[in-house]
Design a protein that fits this description.
The structure holds two protein chains of two kinds. By secondary structure, chain A is mostly helical. Chain A has six helices and no strands. Chain A is 60% helix and 0% strand. In chain B, a hairpin with a 7-residue loop joins strand 2 and strand 3. The C terminus of chain B is likely disordered. The chains are: A mainly alpha, B alpha+beta. Bound molecules: zinc ion.
C-alpha cells in the first residue's frame, strides 16, 4: 500500500491526462507495483528487467480516439454492474484477487474453458474485444 | 495500421492486464503489443475494467504514521537512475521491442547464436525465472526446420522476417501459441532470415547441460 503511494508519486510526472483517465492510470501503477513485489519475492535469479519495460503507452491521442476512449470507459462502467453474477465473480478474482484464469478455475472447481468463456462473454458485453474474428478461438 | 494477423487469445491479455501472467509469457505478450495497436487498445480497455473494479473496493483508512513514513521515503528517493549502459550486442535491432533489446543487452551472459542445424540457430536470454526457457530463434532464408512436437506450451512472436507452417504464414509481430502435443514444421521465408522470440514451458528436466538448447526442437521426426 505504502509502496503504491510512493510509486504514484514517483510516476506522477509521467502521467498524461490525454492518454488515460486518472483512475485507470492509478490502477496500472498499483498493478505494476504488485508485479514488482511478487517478482522480487519469487525470482530465483537476477531479473535484468524493470517491469515498466513490459508496458506500452497508448499510442493514439487524437480527439477522436479520446472520445472513443471515454465512451468505452462509460460502457465498461455501466456494463460491469449489470453482468451476471458468475461473470463478475471471475473478473473480480482476476482483477482484485490477483488470480490467473487457471488459478480461478482451480479455486472455483470449474473447467478452464468455462472460466475463459465466462470472461469472454463479459468482455463481449462490454465491447472490449475489437475484432474477435481475428482470434483463433472458438466462441 | 497494424498488419498483425495472429494475436494472443483474450484470456492471456486479461491475465496480463490483471498482472497475473507469468514473466515469460508476459515478455511474449509485451513483444506482440509493440507491433499490434489492436491489442494495445484492447489492453487499455481491459485496464479500464481493472480500474473500475478497483474503485468498487471500500477505501481503507490510511493512518497518519503510514502517510508520514511514505512521505519521508518519497523525500529520500534518489533522482531517477540513468539507464545503465551495458555492452551492446549486435543481436539488438532498433525495430525490436525495447523489452527484447533490454533482455539481450542485460542478460547475465551475453547471448550468442548457437547452431542447432544447418538452418536454425538459437540464443538463450536470461529472464530471472525458471518456468520457461526464453530464447531467440533464427531461421535462415528458405530454411527447413525439423517437424517437431511440443512437449510443453510454447509462445512465439516473430520479431523480423517471416516463416510459415502447415497452418499459416507468420509475419512481424504475429503471436503463436502451441499447446503440448501440437506438431508443426516451420519453414523460413525465401526472402530473408526470420528471427523469433519464444518462451517454452519446461515440463521435463533434461540432464544434459546443453539439453535446454535442444529442447524446443527436441522431438525430431526426421523426414
Ligand atoms: Zn494483437
Amino acid at each position: 500500500m505504502q509502496e503504491v503511494m510512493i510509486k504514484v508519486w514517483q510516476k506522477s510526472a509521467s502521467y498524461n491526462p490525454a492518454k488515460a483517465s486518472a483512475t485507470t492510470w492509478i490502477y496500472t501503477v498499483a498493478r505494476n507495483c504488485r508485479i514488482d513485489m511478487l517478482r522480487r519475492k519469487s525470482n530465483t535469479q537476477y531479473l535484468p528487467l524493470e517491469n515498466e519495460y513490459f508496458w506500452h503507452e497508448a499510442d493514439e491521442d487524437t480527439p477522436v480516439s479520446l472520445m472513443r476512449q471515454k465512451r468505452s470507459e462509460d460502457k465498461v462502467q455501466s456494463c460491469l454492474s449489470r453482468l451476471p453474477k458468475e461473470q463478475g465473480e471471475i473478473l473480480r478474482k482476476v482483477y482484485l484477487e490477483g488470480k490467473s484464469h487457471a488459478e480461478a478455475s482451480n479455486e472455483l472447481g470449474l473447467p478452464l474453458g468455462t472460466v475463459k468463456s465466462r470472461v469472454r462473454l463479459a468482455l463481449q458485453k462490454m465491447q472490449i474485444l475489437v475484432a474477435p474474428e481475428f482470434r483463433d478461438e472458438v466462441l | 495500421m497494424s498488419t498483425v494477423n495472429h494475436h494472443p487469445e483474450s484470456a492471456m491479455l486479461v491475465d496480463f492486464s490483471g498482472g497475473n501472467l507469468a514473466t515469460a509469457p508476459s515478455i511474449c505478450v509485451s513483444a506482440h503489443l509493440h507491433f499490434c495497436s489492436q491489442c494495445r487498445n484492447e489492453l487499455l480497455r481491459l485496464d479500464q475494467v481493472g480500474s473500475n473494479l478497483m474503485s468498487e473496493v471500500e477505501p481503507t483508512e490510511v493512518g497518519d504514521h503510514l502517510f508520514d513514513s511514505a512521505m519521508s521515503q518519497i523525500d529520500q528517493l534518489p533522482e531517477s537512475d540513468t539507464a545503465e549502459v551495458n555492452n551492446t550486442s549486435d543481436m539488438v535491432d532498433s525495430r525490436y521491442p525495447l523489452l527484447v533489446n533490454k533482455l539481450i543487452n542485460s542478460s547475465e551472459s551475453v547471448p550468442k547464436w548457437r547452431r542447432l542445424s544447418r538452418w536454425l540457430n538459437v540464443a538463450q536470454v536470461t529472464t530471472g525465472q525458471n518456468e520457461y526457457e526464453v530464447a531467440l530463434h533464427k531461421i535462415c532464408a528458405g530454411g527447413k526446420t525439423p517437424r517437431h512436437n511440443h512437449g510443453g506450451q510454447e509462445f512465439t512472436v516473430v520479431l523480423k522476417g517471416s516463416f510459415s507452417d502447415e497452418h499459416a504464414v507468420y509475419k512481424e509481430g504475429d503471436f503463436l501459441s502451441c499447446q503440448p502435443g501440437d506438431v508443426h514444421q516451420p519453414l523460413g521465408a525465401q526472402n530473408g532470415e526470420c528471427i523469433c522470440l519464444s518462451a517454452l514451458a519446461a515440463p521435463i528436466k533434461l540432464s544434459s547441460p546443453f539439453g535446454f538448447l535442444m529442447k524446443p526442437w527436441l522431438r525430431i521426426n526426421p523426414m
